Amino acid sequence: MGFSRYVEVGRVVLISYGPEAGKLATVIDIVDQNKCLVEGPEEITGVSRQVVPFRRIALTDLTVKIQRNARAKQLKAAWKEADTLAKWEGSSWAKKLAAKNKRASLSDFDRFKVMVAKQQKSRIIAKKMKELKA
Amino acid sequence: MTVAGEMRQYQVVGRKAGTDENPNPEAYRMIIFAPNPTTAKSKFWYFMRQFRKMKKTTGEILDCVEITEKNSRTVKNYGIWLRYDSRSGTHNMYREYRDLKLTGAISQLYDEMAGRHRTRPRSIQIIRTATVAAKDLKRPNGAQFAQAKVKFPLPHRVDSAKRGQKALSDRTFSTVRPTTFFG
């Protein structure tokens, strides 16, 4: 199995730890063997330009076409052009994350509603199965 | 001197206090790296009394201002010349760091000198600093990250200890084998 995700200028990363955890960012430059310079773009993902260690990021499959040390404006344009946010939200990784966050934000009554909905769903399935078997 | 937190860069100007014979003594300016202005002024007098016949009790500080980095949005290569006292003698050294700010590079330097040579902050003297173009870098480690196209994978990612989570190697039992390959 070869590698397909690399630390490189333009790589879109998911920040996994720290105050920006859960937000997307783009690699602007590589500082050294431990850290890189990233930026959101701030207007889209809310991550300001900063240095983060590789330990706190997860590489995604997405890249955007930017130059090294790209300015905020160029980065934003690159994201818009490549439609990166939509691509990310369409990925199964992002969907799983969204579902996880949704579940975590549910109230007790919401969880009850989920339980009832699940029961109704399995009732329908069971009924159909019975019909098919008959 | 402690180097806890981020180091700062100060310009300190001082001179001998004026007397009746010499009301306007020559002033000296120095760039000092220190965590706060108090330490910067103290360092100024430490260096000054080694260079000239001057000391704090008969001198005065005219100015002490912090110098901030003009452009802290791109990564630069910093070359640092230093002198340090090891357990067996005094050595000169040249080191290179990549950082957004010179003060960041200086912080890295103090940390690395402590790690590699067990050098305490008080026995390090910064002689000179410069920003270095990528082609003029002398150390291969910094140079490989200063190239135009840098690309590398993150192989074998082992979960490190985080708040509320032990490091992989510290966990006693697990029901699943850990994933370390993430493409």
Automatic annotation (TrEMBL), chain A:
It comes from the Eukaryota. Residues 49-121 form the Large ribosomal subunit protein eL14 domain. The keyword Protein biosynthesis does not apply. InterPro entries: Rib_uL2_dom2, Ribosomal_eL14, Ribosomal_eL14_dom, Translation_prot_SH3-like_sf. Keywords: Chloroplast, Plastid, Ribonucleoprotein, Ribosomal protein. It is found in: Plastid, Chloroplast. Its main location: plastid. GO terms for cellular component: chloroplast; ribonucleoprotein complex; ribosome. Belongs to the eukaryotic ribosomal protein eL14 family. This is Large ribosomal subunit protein eL14 domain-containing protein. It comes from Cyclotella cryptica. The lineage of its organism: Eukaryota, Sar, Stramenopiles, Ochrophyta, Bacillariophyta.
From TrEMBL, chain B:
One of its GO terms (cellular component) is ribonucleoprotein complex. Pfam families: Ribosomal_L18A (PF01775). The keyword Ribosomal protein applies. The lineage of its organism: Eukaryota, Sar, Stramenopiles, Ochrophyta, Bacillariophyta. This is 60S ribosomal protein L18a. Keywords: Ribonucleoprotein, Ribosomal protein. Gene3D superfamilies: 3.10.20.10. Belongs to the eukaryotic ribosomal protein eL20 family. InterPro entries: Ribosomal_eL20, Ribosomal_eL20_dom, Ribosomal_eL20_eukaryotes. Residues 7-129 form the Large ribosomal subunit protein eL20 domain. Coiled coil: none annotated. PANTHER family: 60S RIBOSOMAL PROTEIN L18A. Transmembrane segments: none annotated.
